[in-house]
Fold:
Amino acid sequence: MSGRVFVVGDIHGCLEEFDELLRLIQFDAGSDRLILAGDLVAKGPDTTGVIRRAMELGALSVRGNHEERVLSYLSGKRRLDGSEHANIAKKLEEDERDYLERTPLYLRVPEKNLLVVHAGIDPSRPLEEQDPSVLLNVRGVKNDGTPTMRAQEGLPWASLYRGDELIVFGHDAIRGLQLREHSIGLDSGCVYGGELSALEVGARRLYSVPAKEIYSRPLNRRSIVRLPVCRDDELREGRIFTVQIGVDLNGNPEQALILRDSQGMAHAYRNRCKHLPIPLDLGSGAPTLSDDGTIVCVAHGARYRAEDGHCISGPCQGEWLEPLRLRKEGDALVLHLEASDTTS
Structure:
């Protein structure tokens, strides 16, 4: 089948946001392909609605750790009586159950050189030798090379992966979007009040929609700093605001860039080029937008798309600006920064 290929991060029962994302990407079930990175279920308001929508669209999905829990209850492997996963399992129609049972641990799309997996891999092992629990749960690799599901231990597995296939994954809402040359993490924490994100694979184009509300509180909740930026109607296409968000380890100011793309969506990025760790405007306070709406680094000419921060030309082509979380609250645009975002 020709057409675009999209991968969507962890939906967790957020049907309204899923539908909004599909409208944003203008998904065409007749020509496009849709792959879900797992964890369609649990925590959010409408698990069965998400499964049903995926089935209606002919979407493929890899298995996430939360689907695994539902299926383990159904098979009798785990006693989860009274749990959310048991309650989900009891409500599934036969075709919905079949859909979950058919989900593989990973999916390959050879013509796109793409591998989709829920959590990730052990970078030291071939795919065929991966432990299923790693594919479902891994977040990092310890100093001794052991995979771990704890984000606080070792390094992100994706930072160590250098394979030829692009791996797109979800699961790690703690780290949020992870944008690397060889791997892209799409769990931007929709169910926790973040965004639901999708990747158009061939174009390496990101799309995100904000959560309607906070449906679930993460167990490892980080401190959030709210920083009002401007009135929503002040941010017009073709204009960039800069906002100081802290200082780096050397005491230099750190800024966020706030702008609106040609589709009217507002975005925020850390004001730091991916070629060299310097401000895109060299600290002038006047970042440059070209006539085609791309953000230009004045030092060496790198050009980044406004809608997702992807570098389309220049010395760091293929890299991404670091996204920051921007919310509309009433008439205002407000940055939601984790405490670690306010220093670097």
